[in-house]
Amino acid sequence: MTDQTPFRLLLAALGGEGGGVLMNWIVEAARGAGYQVQATSVPGVAQRTGSTSYYIEIAPKDAPQAVLSLVPMPGRVDAVVCSELVEAARVMAAGFVSPKLTTLISSTARFYSTAEKIAMGDGRYNEDNVRKAAQAMARDSYLFDLGALATENGTFVSATMYGALCGSGVLPWDLSHARSVLGDARSEAGFDAAVAEIVALKDGAGDAEPEPAPVTAPQPDLAELPEGLRTVIGHGIDRLRDYQDAAYADTFLERAKRLIQAADLSDHRAVHALTEACRRLALWMAYEDVARVADLKTRPERFERIRDEVQLQPGQVLTVTEYLKPRAEEIADILPAPLGRRIMARVARGKGLPLLGRGIYVRSNGVAGYWMLRAMAGLKRLRRRSYRFALEQQAIEDWLGVMQAALARSPDFAMGLAELPRVLKGYSDTLQRGKFAYGRIMDNIVRPAIAAGREAEEARRLRDAIGAALADDSHEKLDAVLAGDSPAPGIPNLKRVENA
């Protein structure tokens, strides 16, 4: 705030995060310090279906008759505070962040948007691009996890957003005055934690990357592998031991060794393809069936996370209700193979099973609902004899065979082939569409290329076909790529953050 120019502040949050409370704190602090202030808001709706923006202008003390604006103007905002990383991207895209003027403060937490969730492939936005844009487009930028600080201190993200804003030093009043408007101990704790964090960032103490989570070490004979590949294999071992048992994790390791033996580890392209292939192999082997979903829904850490997210207080009662809509295909998947085949034959004839296809509600933290889901989770003991297990293992072995050939002959083709399992995602109709696209790509591109030794020539076409399958669940783009009538869409170049 200089001369007669007001201080202009834009808050970007999601519905239900307490943005209105944050705005009121700032207004109360400004008035208590003798400033003229005006605040307006544009409300959104729940979480990622709508954004909520709050705009505040604070007039200097020597300009009591200042005319304050109701809306922000691009390039003319002094400070922006965001509760979520893609909210920061939205504000930057709208032009409100200026490299000569704006201090940008944003949480690095993510709440995935509907567009990200419904994408056929990995639809998540590249977080690294947002971080780089923040550093380039703002005069000063401070990015850290405000949501985690709020959870640790038993409060809402609005308190940590306020603490980060005040700790940055851009407001024209001191911290003690800013803190005085909070009124409760939990908000004060979140405020203090955010102030300490942003002061550390300003002093350069917060620049170090966090220590990576410990990873189970692969067997000693893999110790000479590149670090990224070792990490992926270690995560895969952990996941598959948790998913099934140690023997299943050993099966993953043996399959990974087959791929390693086929690859030229002196070629960085082959190492990249091998790493992605091992990642996809672990994810594929841990496919989600009824038993897996029931197990994940009834784990103690899930209920603990939900209690933290809703800020459950002593004396309050929490009800966790699951919506289930079982289909004949999902029942067949977990049954013994002969019985599963009979059910799927009925489905193919259009008959299905009685009493299925209707949605049911189950209270997973109630006695009856919890033990029903635990009984379903116990079906994992039958998984090796199940209908879907046999199908998945056969498909995995088929993919491994062509993957080994590709690694030995063409790293470029292998890089595309390592991405092919991405087409297999979701469940029900989505999964069936993915399987259809996967089969067409294997039959029309992969197998003919391997048989004719034309892997290098077909590498680009393979990547284009995968990109088309991920971009369009109607398969029209895939049809065009296979027919040679479409410009290459390519595989979406998205950062992959899922761990095997």
Automatic annotation (TrEMBL):
Keywords, A to Z, come to:
Oxidoreductase, Pyruvate
The UniProt record lists the keyword Oxidoreductase: yes
Top-level taxon in the UniProt lineage: Bacteria
Pyruvate/ketoisovalerate oxidoreductase catalytic domain spans which residues? 15-168
Query: Could you tell me which residue ranges the DUF6537 domain spans?
Result: 230-441
Q: Per its record, what are the GO molecular function terms?
A: oxidoreductase activity, acting on the aldehyde or oxo group of donors
- What would be one Pfam family of this protein? DUF6537
InterPro entries, alphabetized: DUF6537 (IPR046667), IorB_Oxidoreductase (IPR052198), Pyrv/ketoisovalerate_OxRed_cat (IPR019752), Pyrv_flavodox_OxRed_cen (IPR002869)
- NCBIfam families attached here? PRK08312.1
Query: What is this protein called in UniProt?
Result: Indolepyruvate oxidoreductase subunit beta family protein
Species per Swiss-Prot/TrEMBL record: Thalassovita mangrovi
